[in-house]
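re: ur question from earlier - yeah i can do the single chain one, its not a big deal. heres the input i used so u can compare w yours
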Amino acid sequence: MLTLGPHDILPGCQASDWHAALDAAADALIEAGLAAPGYRDGLRAREAQSSTYLGNAIAIPHGTPDSREHVRQTGVRVLQFPDGVEWHDGHRVHVLVTIAAQNDEHLNILRALTHVLDRDGVADALASASSREEIAALLAKQVPTPKLDSQTLCLKFPAQGVRELALAAAARLYQSDLVDNAFIAAIAEKPPMWLGNGYWLTSHASASLTPALALATPADATLEDDGHPVHALFCLAANADYHLPLLAQLDTLLENVESHTLAGADTARALSLLAGENAATPTRRVRVLNPHGLHARPAKQLVQVARSQPVPVQVRLEEGSPASVSAASLTKVIGLGARRGQWLTLSATGDGAEAALEAVVGAIEAGLGEKVTPFDGGIAAPTALEHEEKAAPALAPDTPHQGVAASPGLAIAPVFVLRAPQFDYPENAADADIERERLWQAIEQSKAQLGTLVRNAAGGDVADILSMHAEMLDDPELHHAAKDAISEGRSAEAGWWEAIDTAAHAQEMLADRLLAERAADLRDVGRRVLSVLCNFELPEPPAHPYILVTEDVGPSDVARLDTSKVKGLLTERGGATAHSAILARALGIPAVVGAGRAVMALGNASMMILDGDRGRVTPSPSEERLSRAEQQLLDLQAREADAWERRFEPAQTRDGHPVEVAANLGNTLHAEDAVERGAEGVGLLRTEFLFMAHSSAPDLATQTAEYRQALEALAGRPLVARTLDVGGDKPLPYWPVPQEDNPFLGLRGIRLALTEPHVLETQLRALLMAAAPDAQGNARPLRIMLPMVKDVAEFRAVRAIFDRLLTDIPEGERASNVQLGVMIEIPSSALLAPSLAAEVDFFSIGTNDLTQYTLAIDRGHPALSADADGLHPAVLRLIQMTVEAAHAQGKWVGVCGELASDAAAVPVLVGLGVDELSVTARQVPLVKARLREFDLDEAKRCAQLALSMATAGDVRDALEAN
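and the output i got, formated as tokens:
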């Protein structure tokens, strides 16, 4: 197991800026023989995606997955910068923990770092540390969490005196594994301290103790000692200064609560008083109904509701610590670890408190955006089996079945049906010792399973992931959390999943994407152990190539597919514009999605033909059909090879009609790759990547440098940059947006940008300056497009800023070949295209949003997204109107949505008069090849045929028959 030692640390480093610091980190890895020089670019690319600043003056630079080929040996180097370096997101960094990782062996080091993020004084200590050993100790030191909850309460104990009450409180801490026998002995030796007003305190300090506070109250309300009433006694386990939050909580209680009130309290009332709630504090109780508890999605909804209230709202878990947390803090709310069936107590003070509590309670009872059912006292665990699903009818053999074309290509292979495991187990158990032993045995068995799989794996990413899963099973924090839950009466299954789910939620909230993505792996590990505990056999994928059939897959699932084995992907749910489908296209895996429940009834190992271009699957094909498909696959492979060889040829139809084929990019670093794949420009640069990588809006210099990087890589090819497109559905942490019932119809795109015109002006200025002619005077073509424009008024507001900048910036320092256009993604803009075309320089049609707004279908809706087809005649008519209006004014029109790479749609779009198709870089050669397969007249006939149909299904059937 990889560990961090003094030999890995380089103290006393200096750097003029973060670029120099990052280069120094790369040099350290290279000099140590951990990485080749090419890994430096991977470090830079990772920072361009998002900042690796972790917190408390620590950043963790590491390469992208693509840069792993430059890693010679997994290792870590720590660079200390005593004077500090300002990172590109505005934070001050004193330590870089830079990583070269062939796999995920380094995760235990990063996991340990999370313990220093909230510790006061660590940043200064790291800056002033004078030795390697001192730095290593600071980074490795784990901070114990103070403990005060229902398990540390001992209420109405039949004590005969204050010393007996003190021993009862100490025993409660001992039973919770928070203190040792020496603590009990120390408490027994000293008399408790009289604090006044019926309160008493006893304590003992030791570096080996978990900081904790127990409360004991006597059963006899008249109990006295030395003439003083004994109403409540606190027993404190002190350790350094880690117990100080407990003392602060105790101090507040002593000032505000009479001891006799606490003496008569039950557990719920005692926790309420310890939380600072009194009779005058407006409070509300509400039960968590979400099947998976307050995980990230419902927690985010809760936070948005809380933030919209006129007064601060606090929330605490009744079964947990009495400390309330802000309901407006996402990390704090998720940190509660609230499960289905548990009670929350909400509190607020000030004018409007009651109304605020009512609003938050109503949102929780409504499910926080999830479908919920009333709590009936049944199994509350997130993986519990809640109902039996009806068996789906099987698909007819040798018969094409229609789904949604999601990723082009043809796959022929046996199917492997991966069904989500359903675990049914008791929530609680009587014997904690038996449950701990069951869990230990299940963990050991799971480790043995993974060890076998690692040995049988053929190396590569699959073996790396399995090895990392085995390492996760040794995580002492998971073991400790599960043990605590079992000690509280939970079953081994419930305690283990509670630990897994809480840790996964914490991972998901980390700003660093590498760490956040490990949440899926945590849950995979959790399900493996759960399957052993429940005697459930997890299906293993076959060793031979197969078509994966599943209900749905998330982006992380698709990204981890072994593409050497997975020849195709078929899902029950999802749509062509879902993230999983988009990523499948990027990985080159043929995919059909939204095929319906019947696909889950397919038998494993049955042969299937999957056509990702037409969105069709044929189960159990006849020998004749199979033979035709195999020949088609050979032809397709030859076509792909030919497309790659001819990728640099001009994009044009068979009869020479030019149609520019450009690339959609989410990062400037990918511009060079797009050119290598034959892209004739960038048709969509999503500039929000740059804003999301910073803790505040990036300044002019930062933006200019980023945009220029793409323009230089394009070497004179045009760049179409979309201005910042964020809003309620994808907010920026430093640009808060009020909660909206439907953020897709609220403040986003150009609407939001115009509320902060200085941010928009800085971006426009940066784009114009980045596109200034090169040293030889050659122009850098720049096209700026505005998102979510509904009419010409919004365009004019931006045009005024744009025109002023053209005047303000000296001509030689700005773009000389520049256009300002709009995205057509709202039906109103297509309907008003003639008025827009008179003033804009170009249109770019975003078919993803245009389709969902036109058809009133959320493209992420699990049941309806399959019907969000851009080839619907209504969408095609809006495209036709847009093109006709633009061409009447001599303006050009592009399409930058997923429809642009749909093989069936390409001739239709060309026939409608579209001048540019912008697709993922991987699709560029194939779209160019598709253009060479038809002439312009054929394309026009396809377009008219499509426009004459009544539904999207009719369009696809007619095009296939044509």
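The two ends are 61 Å apart (CA to CA). not sure if urs matches, ping me
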